[in-house]
Design goal:
This protein has 10 helices and 10 strands. The chain has helices at 2-11, 114-128, 133-158, 169-180, 188-195, 199-210, 214-232, 237-243, 249-260, 264-276; strands spanning 13-24, 28-32, 37-44, 47-51, 54-58, 62-66, 72-75, 82-93, 97-98, 108-110.
Length: 281
């Protein structure tokens, strides 16, 4: 199981969208829903989190991880100072798959080594202000992955069931097959024959575990691959279509346009024009 998880984690890209360290005496964030994960760590003071009818009391050393598209309230009831280390992030393969869905992530948990986490997070914030391009690119990226590592490592040490359910392992294996070979056409019938499960059950279970059907994940991986090739290579549209598994260009163009809103050629021209306007040095 672990080699499969290892492959998925290595295939994903971490993007920290926003981050900061805040000292707050008052806070009233209500009915918020974000397209990214919300990570909030309480260094000092207290706060509360409400998701649906459940209220979580947050003390120093507590981490909150709220999945995307989950409505929540994050607030304080006292005037005492609270120090938050927070970030909004995604960890995805292309734009197709949220890899953290394979984990049984708790909404809140206590850090076993809060001092180390605080030090790494502060390093990450300070690196962002650096004028050295190597620090701002390579070291910042390394520190962002260290933050994620410390969070996941803590969860895996403290929880018996890290993954959703034992019987989800077969679906994680199916998912890995699709991620490894997105250009290889897949059908629910083929998956049904291979894993001896009903096609409807496979599709519904995928949606429960990963938020999308296997066909949708594969198509989005194809589109993500095609967009990268259009931006970064001189391959023709025909060659790119074949690279992502389409022998007939019109079929590829229809799929691309249905997801991106414009044709592959228009997408390439738009990105070529944008890149040519970036000043050198």
């Amino acid at each position: 199981m672990h080699p499969i998880i290892d492959y998925l984690l290595q295939s994903a890209e971490l993007t920290i969208v926003e981050f900061d360290i805040h000292e707050r005496n008052e806070m009233q964030i209500l009915n918020r829903t974000l397209p990214s994960y919300v990570m909030s760590y309480i260094k000092k003071g207290e706060a509360k989190l409400r998701i649906k009818d459940e209220v979580y009391h947050l003390a120093p050393g507590t981490v909150v991880i709220i999945p995307p598209h989950i409505e929540h309230d994050h607030y304080k009831e006292t005037k005492d100072e609270t120090i938050f280390l927070w970030c909004h992030f995604t960890y995805e393969i292309g734009s197709a798959l949220d890899v953290l869905k394979i984990f049984n992530l708790p909404i809140t948990f206590k850090l076993q080594n809060p001092e180390m986490f605080e030090r790494v997070f502060v390093d990450f914030v300070e690196i962002t202000d650096s004028q050295d391009f190597l620090i701002k690119t390579i070291l910042k990226k390394a520190k962002s992955y260290e933050i994620l590592y410390l969070l996941l490592e803590n969860i895996m040490r403290s929880q018996e069931k890290v993954f959703e359910q034992d019987h989800s392992k077969g679906f994680i294996f199916m998912l890995t097959q699709i991620v490894k070979n997105p250009e290889k056409e897949v059908s629910l019938k083929e998956l049904s024959n291979q894993f001896h499960l009903h096609p409807t059950y496979i599709s519904n279970r995928f949606k429960e575990l990963f938020g999308k059907s296997p066909i949708q994940i594969q198509r989005e991986l194809k589109i993500d691959r095609a967009k990268k090739l259009l931006r970064s290579t001189e391959m023709t549209v025909t060659e790119i279509a074949q690279e992502v598994g389409y022998m007939v260009v019109p079929g590829f163009t229809r799929l691309f346009k249905s997801y991106v809103g414009i044709s592959p050629t228009q997408y390439r021209n738009m990105n070529t024009k944008w890149n040519s306007n970036i000043p050198e040095g």
